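[agent] plan:
  1. take the single chain provided in the ticket
  2. run structure prediction with default settings
  3. attach structure tokens to the ticket
  4. add a short note for the reviewer (M.T.)
[agent] executing step 1
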Amino acid sequence: MNTKLPDISKEVEKLIFDKLETFNKGKITDKSCYYILVPNNKTLYYTLWFFNLNAVHHPSVYISNLELNAISSINKAIHMVANSFLPLYITDKTDSFFSHGDDIISFGKYRGHHLQDIYTIDPRYVCWLADKYEAQTKSEHRFKEIAVTYSQIYIDLYTRKKYKTPISSFVGTPGDKLTNLNLTITKVRIEDDPYKTRIENGSTYFYVDQLITAIDTDKNLFLFTYKAKEHSFESRVLSCYTHAYKVEEKIHLLSARILKHIEIRGIKYTKLGYIKF
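[agent] step 2 finished; step 3 output follows
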């Protein structure tokens, strides 16, 4: 981006862009996003904004002041939007950053206040407005659009990541071998292997597999099965000699082969086999 950072050396500027590039790795780049606006003739502060790709009248809304210092502002913004799958950029363009009074509420206990002020002290009220307010006139539609954008920000920043739908892409091509995969487990399902279950001398032996869903640092999802090596005497109960994988556990795969690509309810998964730990 051809953004000018005021009174910043090229070394510090490079550090800032490197920080943002690292933070944005694996983020959704074709949807809405967060912006840091550099100081301008209206404020000495770096400020944080949100760009709503679907908004017609006011795509950009103000969220918060950051700091006077560039690096401190970047660090603060990254911390504030860390829960989001959306990217964070920095810009000096202010063309679309004005609401022209459309965000002033004309009724209720917050009458005369800007939606941004209300969002800061009572975000759930703004979410309620976005859901329940029935706009009639053009100005009311513009007002509701801004409320909807703030509601999206609140949901995006304060909904825990494990309850969000990850944005995953297919990795590689079926048949490819992958090496040195660092993954975080997001789901574990226990399942008996019906082909290995057997009865010997009146005792039933179950081989209980763990079907694992995991995610990499680029938000790509993987499916693979950890096959039971030891038997269990109960269905869907792991052997006491088997490691029970847990959600949020980090694992390292030395190698794996891509079996196929699967899409379930619009979410893309890469199915792995021939796993080596």
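[agent] step 4 note for reviewer: The helical segments are 10-23, 70-80, 115-121, 123-132, 138-158.
[agent] ticket updated
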